[in-house]
Amino acid sequence: MEHQSALRKFLKTILIPQQKDSKKSFLSGGFMQRRIDEKLLTPELKKSGKIFFTLEGDEFKGFEKIQRNLRQDISTEYLKDRELGDALWYLLCDVYLNKEVYRNSESLKRRIEKFIQQICKPLKDYEVIFGVSNLSIKKYPLQIWDVALNKLTKEDLERMELKIGGKLKELLFKKFIKNAVVIIAMQGNNSGFVVERAREKAEFALKVLQVYFNELIEIHDENLLFDVSDFALIRGKEINKWAWSWKRKRSPFGISIGDSLLASITKANDHFKVISYLNPNFQSRVQRAIYWLGSAIEEEAFDHKMIHLCTALESLLTSRSDKRKGEVIAYRMVILNHLTEGNFPDPFRLMWFYELRSRIVHGSAIGQTTKSDYLNLQDITTRTLFSLITQIKQLNAKDYFDLISQLENEVNLKLVKSYFEGFKGEWPQSILQILNEKLEKFK
Questions:
Q1: Residue 27 has pLDDT above 50, yes or no
Q2: Which of 73, 69, 78, 68 is nearest to 193 (CA)?
Q3: pLDDT in tens, 66-93
Q4: How far apart (Å, rounded) are the C-alpha atoms in residues 338 and 408?
Q5: pLDDT value at position 197?
């Protein structure tokens, strides 16, 4: 029902013609153009050459939000990202090309219901088992919240009739026989994603053990370094047949510094010369940002990566006196990138990341950061660091507050204000309020 309501609201914006500023939408990152599906193209459209459809501004952001929400629904996990995107795009183009039909509320409702039925498939029941290293059980089974801890023997594994042999079989048996196992009941319609969600649940159950064992004085952190196995055993309840899967754990690839990387070394050394002339407090700010950027690379969980990158941005672009840090980072990032690269990045994508970070830190979200989110924010943060160092050199600023003062001159503030005035919504208005307060000082 939630998807239907969101889709109805979004598609109504497509049915109502809106004036668009393609240049502003493109510069803000809110732009998407794709070919209309061949099944929807009439001979007239082909002849006229109108075979593409464009989303801009709020329409583009609405499409992204709908797609993200559908992707998080486990009833669509059987679909690949591209398949889900194509299905949503087909619906969008169908509604757009048949406006006269779908301006009727009942027709639109039936079309949305058909779409939901097509992409949301029934869930199946699964059972997933992982080995847990550094944990053994004397009395079993044990229940920890909604998962079970147990033990498997060699005979138990043989009865599963797993299609595995040789050294790989020996390795799998070793992971399960000598350790405790965690058994999890799951639902889904893609066994690969079922295993991954079960792994997250297993890891959380072990965190529960860590927290509750840790209150005992004789227990040390080193006693609690449990690890979920890279092997998993899974069976669908309908089929009642066991299978196995294996996930390669993150491990270093290594790198060899050759000619192609020497330019990066030169850039780092050039930046070091600039940073060396800063006063100690400003040097510390830049070094902390670099530290957090590096720490984000070392972290494995995308939520943790997100937190570290946001901390790096705070080190670069905010001080204790800045109350609304997300808004301040957004408009200062726009100023920096405009001065250095000559364009305006999408500040609202950053604001969304910052809001997600806040939800993670304050406990209302877990596991919602995607790899794409991380890579986008990593790019934003790295570019902001490099732009900041460029402006330090150009403005000959050795103090952080001197740099901010020069960046926030009247000309730059008016320029960035005119940029944000082109957008509607809570975030732009919040940023404009700060900019107006800043501009008051020049009157």
A1: no
A2: 78
A3: 998 999 899 999 999 999 999 999 999 9
A4: 13
A5: 93
Coil, strand or helix at 397: coil
Q: Work out the average pLDDT over 270-274.
A: 93
Q: In what order do the strands lie in the sheet with 242-246?
A: 142-144, 147-150, 180-188, 124-133, 227-236, 242-246
Phi first, then psi: give them for residue 27, nearest 5 degrees: -65, -30
Dihedral of the CA atoms 196, 202, 208, 214 (nearest 10)?
A: -110
Tallying the residues shown for the chain, one arrives at 443
Q: Distances in Å between the alpha carbon of 290 and those of 67, 309, 313, 331?
A: 33, 10, 10, 21
The whole-angstrom separation of Cα 372 and Cα 375 is 5
pLDDT, residue 28, reads 44
Q: Minimal CA–CA distance to 246: which of 192, 288, 209?
A: 192
Q: Sign of torsion, CA 424 407 335 284?
A: negative
Give the tokens for residue 355: 């809001």
**Distance of alpha carbon 285 from alpha carbon 384, whole angstroms:** 13
Choose among 83, 126, 96: nearest CA to 14.
96
Mean pLDDT of 318-324: 86
- Residue type at 407? L
β-pair type (124-133, 142-144)? unpaired
In whole angstroms, what is the distance from residue 192 CA to residue 155 CA? 26
Cβ atoms 334, 344 nearer than 8 A: yes
Neighbours of 94 (CB within 10 A): 18
Q: What are phi and psi of 64, to 5 degrees?
A: -60, -40
Cα 175 to Cα 181: distance, rounded to the nearest angstrom: 9
Query: SS3 for 124?
Result: strand
Residue 25 to residue 57: CA distance in whole angstroms: 5
Question: Tokens at residue 161, please?
Answer: 């009739």
Residue-wise pLDDT tens digits, 202-253: 999 999 999 888 888 788 888 999 989 999 999 998 888 999 998 877 777 7
Give the global pTM: 0.69
* Residue 1 confidence (pLDDT): 65
CA distances from 438 to 66, 335, 410, 433, 442 (A): 36, 14, 9, 9, 8
